[in-house]
DNA sequence: CGGTAATCGAGACGGTACGTCATGTCTTACA
DNA sequence: TGTAAGACATGACGTACCGTCTCGATTACCG
């Protein structure tokens, strides 16, 4: 960014952290559109110019702030011996985290920005979406090695079949995102809606 | 709303339509946050006060405008004789419409508002989500009567399993929302990821 | 300016006056550079946008505000029967007004802007300088008709010879702008520094 | 100022000169308010802190920079044998210098600061005003010794009568500051507007 | 058919946030 | 210690949008 030759006054890490903390706190209080940069600056005890020096837009700041908040709890999926168990141990913590606080509000706002800004969209996906998909992909790899699923299985579709319903409930809110729902999704995705051939 | 006794000058339907058209046109051009009420008023040749008389917020207007735009093409699912065929005939037009224009941009914005406004959220779901779910529900009803699926099938989960992945791709854009993808989702949702019991 | 066809909400004269009053009050308190548009807006109970709608810059506003303040006292020169008496009755009130309050501060600031903005300079002169010169010119006209001064007298030089010293003391402040000084200037300008030819 | 014991790294005279040159160059390009300390620092290849170490304000720097620029041409009034000739040889170079470049712009800005800062005002007058008045005073002294003017002549008023009109045209710009004007001012100041007693 | 009442376009209004810019101070590493 | 680089807190800038308002003009119905 700036300060390439390590010359001049170094960036204040204290200010950086205060900004992220303030932004995260405000984002959990109210909608992104209701959070003003002035408010973030004031709560962080920081100049608005300092925020804009490091984050180009409010959305970019929200992305970083939410990511920091989000990653304080980093789930660690266990190897349960079966794809079903592995998926449950991966998705249940995600669902609990996602619904534990008004994260959906921020995610929706970020998603809105991503619709019009491809660079932002990529950044968003790399932070929030891809890591989870990679974890799930590893589970499917393990299941393939175990022989649980055939080699030709379309993994990317399977990933959408699992995460899609969770995001759907998180964002649309037509029904709650419970542990029970996660189990139902995993079961139905694995076994299918139609009864297996007798 | 107003004018209960039908007294005074009646509401101009011409103005109403011009506003909806202008809003729709602008929403397909740019993000909701980039569309100002002044711009809508100017494009519609209408006073800002006239807009606010009939729509409380920009989001409410966007909801109506998108709905009008969205419903110009109303898919009509055929009875294909099988749940698989029915679902394809229901979901494929939806996916085509959803990805035919930058509707995702508007939907994401409406969804963002819905996160903080329960009344708006209900309105949004009643317009865009529930009708589709009702249609799908009818297909499942038909399948149950046909004996394709058992009586205890959790329909709501199944609905999320089908629409969730579609919304997921529409909103996250990590991969395109193609006919092929719709088919893969339907197949995998119906048959399951795991191979059926031999 | 705007509102050519008398359409739309008419300009609030109340707001206009409140802005001018607030600006004048602040300008008498502190330097123009210390007066912020926010402060004027707040003191006037008015939106900043309303100020900018009618005045392009802070300096233009200051010009209007000072002019209103300045013109509350409008001196009326009497015909005293002699050029000397006429000039005294014209210049003494000017000097008293100019030094009665910190007008020099504002005038210097306006003058500074005028140095870089020809349009503003013209406006400034038309408001503050030309009317006074016109008044003085009339006195000289009367004196010519009386036969006090010859026909070929360079009036414009004479005007500078009278107003120049007054502005000089007002702006440079190397000595006070007293009634006594005005009398001395008038006397010396009329009679000359050198003793008349015996 | 600082560095009384001559300890540590000595002040860079090179930096000092570069700062003054940069400031002078920028001040001749645009108004003082348009000249930022950052711009001066950058043009001088110097740190902003270095400027502030030696000059408390932008105005103080401008004062020094203009003074250096101004004094590159230092007029040397000749003894012409008459007060009229002496004054012309003093004032004509001043007027030429003053109108040769946009010095009026800087002078007006300094004058504006002087209105609110008595210390700065004194400094300004000691640099730009008093030396010229002292020179003129000497001419009047010579004229008194020659018997050209009576002993009781109010010299300070006479000085204002001469410099006042010049500053007036320089700052107000209602008419150009030509050699012709200087001659007219000297003539009219010496001889008076009224015809001498026959 | 004239009065009443709600609508309309136009556009000014108070308010709030925006993103930028300049000021003057500071913190580092180097000279 | 002086310096260049540059980050920092502060605070004003001028713009844009929001949602409300005040006009005069229009258009129905109702008496």
Automatic annotation (TrEMBL), chains A, B, C, D:
GO terms for MF: DNA-binding transcription factor activity; transcription cis-regulatory region binding
Start-end of DNA-binding region: 36-55
UniProt cross-references to InterPro entries, sorted A to Z: Homeodomain-like_sf, HTH-type_TetR-like_transc_reg, HTH_TetR, Tet_transcr_reg_TetR-rel_C_sf, TetR_C
One Pfam assignment: TetR_C_11
Swiss-Prot/TrEMBL keywords: DNA-binding, Transcription, Transcription regulation
GO BP term (any one): negative regulation of DNA-templated transcription
Domain of life: Bacteria
Membrane-crossing residue ranges in chain numbering: none
Cited PROSITE patterns: HTH_TETR_2 (PS50977)
Domain named HTH tetR-type: residues: 13-73
UniProt keyword annotation of Glycoprotein present: no
Coiled-coil positions: none
Matches recorded under PANTHER family: HTH-TYPE TRANSCRIPTIONAL REGULATOR RUTR, TETR-FAMILY TRANSCRIPTIONAL REGULATOR
Protein name per UniProt: AcrR family transcriptional regulator
